[in-house]
Amino acid sequence: MKKILLAVAAGAMLVACNSSDPQTTASANQETSTASEEQASAGQSAVQDDESQKNVVQVAASSPDHTTLVTAVKAAGLVDVLTNAGPFTVFAPTNAAFEKLPAGTVEDLLAPEKRSDFRSILQYHVYVGVLNTDNIEDGQSLGQVNGGRVTMGVKDGKVTVNGANIVASIPTSNGVIHVIDQVLLPQ
Length: 187
Prior knowledge:
Elements: H1 2-18, H2 22-42, H3 56-61, H4 67-75, H5 79-83, E1 88-93, H6 95-99, H7 105-110, H8 115-123, E2 126-128, E3 141-143, E4 149-155, E5 158-161, E6 164-172, E7 175-180
Parallel strand pairs: 1-7
Antiparallel strand pairs: 1-2, 3-4, 4-5, 5-6, 6-7
Domain FAS1: 53-184
Pfam families: Fasciclin (PF02469)
Protein name: Fasciclin domain-containing protein
């Protein structure tokens, strides 16, 4: 009989500890649900993390030399893709590289009706996997995200991709960025 009374008393205490004002609980559940829905609809790029190493998009966005690339990635709807875990090797043309294109090219590609073309060009700059410059071999061919292929070159310690010079390499949380001096155009 004592065991039953103890079990009932323990159960009553657990219920009392877990109960709260139903209105407060409903409000808290609604706020949590709304925040979760907003984050889910925003995609991976909406995740806030100020402690981890920056991903490829965050690194590019913090570079004054890559504002054109970042604008293009946003316009093509690739921000969430490139903030995912990866790993990615991104060949990132500088603003100066975009300026070498014929006048009006970038503006034309930013038009909504050209989004798929621009997306393909940007995906031609992305390899799935991490490829550090010390692992690149002369003549090595890589399959890019858009289905095209690029050819790596190594000569006198300099590394190129389709003839574009890799001028810097930056490790990120989800891969590596190789800064290049030309825009890669699929053939």
